[in-house]
Amino acid sequence: MLAVTGEGGMASVQLEQVRKTYPNGFVAVHDATFEVADGELLVLVGPSGCGKSTLLRMIAGLETISSGRLRIGDRVVNDVAPKDRDIAMVFQNYALYPHMTVGENLGFGLKLRGLARADIASRVDDAARTLELGALLDRKPAVLSGGQRQRVALGRALVRQPQVFLLDEPLSNLDAKLRLSMRVEIARLHRQLKATMVYVTHDQIEAMTLGQRIVVLKDGVIQQVDTPMALYRHPANLFVATFLGSPAMNVLRGRLHRSDGLRLDLGDRTSIPLPATDIPDAWLGQEIAMGIRPEALHVAGSHEPSFAPEVEVVEPIGSDVFANLRFGSQGLVARFSPETLPAVGDVLPLSIEAGALHFFDPESGVRRPLSA
Predict the structure, then answer these.
(1) Is the distance from CB of 116 to CB of 150 less than 8 angstroms?
(2) What Å distances lie between residue 59 and 76, 79, 154, 173, 221, CA to CA?
(3) Residues 65 and 33: beta-carbon distance below 8 Å
(4) Quick check: 314 pLDDT over 60?
(5) Rounded-to-integer distance, Cα 37 and Cα 80, Å
(6) pLDDT of residue 255
(7) pLDDT exceeding 70 applies to what percent of the chain?
(8) CB-count exposure of residue 294 (10 Å: 0-12, 13-18, 19+)
(9) Could you tell me the CATH number of the domain that includes residue 320?
(10) What is the predicted pLDDT for the residue at 1?
(11) Is residue 342 part of a domain?
């Protein structure tokens, strides 16, 4: 197995109030503060233009830091050249040399660093074995599949034996099937190497399945940092709530009131009965944004409080059925098991699972915690 030791072993990465401001005054990253633990796989996720790649490039030294402090291990590296940071980066476009074989691509960086030929050969062989590239070492990139090229790009980072791996949307050029297999490959590789990795993606499925923790970004501002399931179950705001999860969380806007139990008045002569929830009395009569995950909606039993939306679109995907629904002026999506296969035009009596409601401020979008 390939040993990843780096010059100082694995390392944590610490960002303290790191900011990136361009000469025209545009702030791409606002005072980012978080730590990547030694050996952790941390994912930076958010929509295009949110600042995640800029953050990664600042860690790599490819972008200057306008203010704040960046540490890799025990060193402050704000002014350290990229080649001296002991990091290796994997790019979206593979960046392989077309005239070199796979073996030459893997060893080229080590050759530039002046390593002995025997050491280069040993590291290349180890990386090829780890990534199952042994049969491809004499081939040129042009004859490789996208997945094979991405494995070579990963291998080129592996042979460096860096303290930190940085991966910038490495799977975005692959088709859906290859993305799935490469996600598994990267997760296996991380578990095998116990390497510190920072992984950038715009794909929330990649983020949820790969990250031990996730940093969610919007407009250069960190929205929340937590484990995938903590983000899913306790999103800090509406952006996190609707960005993570597929299909996205349903968000209904209305006023809470009590009439034969708790209800959400949607303002168009419709209301939804809610499961018993201990809300503060001060919320009653106020505008609120309420979130419901699609899997929290189920066909109501005969004695359950229910509402009856109309089915507009049905999407069976084998393991699940997604139903796009309309209730008054509000649209919702429900996730059912394959045994529940409604037809377009059906009016379904639905209930909401107990404990499944999320409440947010309708203006700021910030989560409103329930009373203890």
Answers:
(1) no
(2) 11, 11, 18, 23, 16
(3) no
(4) yes
(5) 21
(6) 96
(7) 97
(8) buried
(9) 2.40.50.140
(10) 42
(11) yes
Give all strands (DSSP E) within 84-240, no chain letters: 87-90, 164-168, 196-201, 213-218, 221-226
Which tokens hold the place of 69?
């402090």
- Which runs of E-coded beta strand occur in 108-204? 164-168, 196-201
The token pair at 144 is 């490789």
Q: Mean pLDDT for the chain?
A: 92
d(CA 77, CA 14): 10
Q: What is the C-alpha to C-alpha distance for residues 143 and 357, in angstroms, rounded to an integer?
A: 52
Coil, helix or strand at residue 132: coil
Helix H or strand E segment including 272: strand 271-273
Pick the more confident residue, 3 or 12. 12
Report the distance separating Cα 33 and Cα 112, nearest Å.
35
How far apart CA 259 and CA 250 sit, in angstroms, is: 23
Q: What is the CATH number of the domain that holds 92?
A: 3.40.50.300
**Of 243, 269, 288, which residue is a domain's last?**
243
Bridge partners of residue 222, in order along the sequence? 217
Sequence-separated (6 or more) residues with CB below 8 Å from residue 46? 52, 202, 216, 217, 218, 243
How many angstroms separate the first and last alpha carbons of the chain? 50
Question: What is the rounded CA–CA span in Å between residue 222 and residue 208?
Answer: 17
Q: At which residue do the structure tokens 């005239």 appear?
A: 99
Length of the chain: 372
Q: Which has the closest alpha carbon to 324: 252, 256, 247, 231?
A: 247
Q: Which two tokens stand for residue 149?
A: 């090229």
What is the rounded distance in angstroms from the CA atom of residue 371 to the CA atom of residue 128? 55
In 3D space, the residue among 269, 266, 268 whose CA is nearest the CA of residue 256 turns out to be 266
Q: For residue 49, what are the contacts with CB-CB under 8 A and spacing of at least 6?
A: 219
Cβ atoms < 10 Å from Cβ of 299: 15
CB 109 within 8 A of CB 97: no
Tokens standing for residue 73:
């291990």
Task: Let me know if residue 65 belongs to a domain.
Answer: yes
DSSP state of 350: E
User: Domain range for residue 18?
Assistant: 13-243
What is the tally of structural domains in the chain? Answer: 2
Q: Give the mean pLDDT of 188-211.
A: 93
Residue in the block written with tokens 């094979």: 148
The answer to whether the predicted template modeling score (pTM) of the entire model surpasses 0.85 is yes
Give the type of residue at 251: V
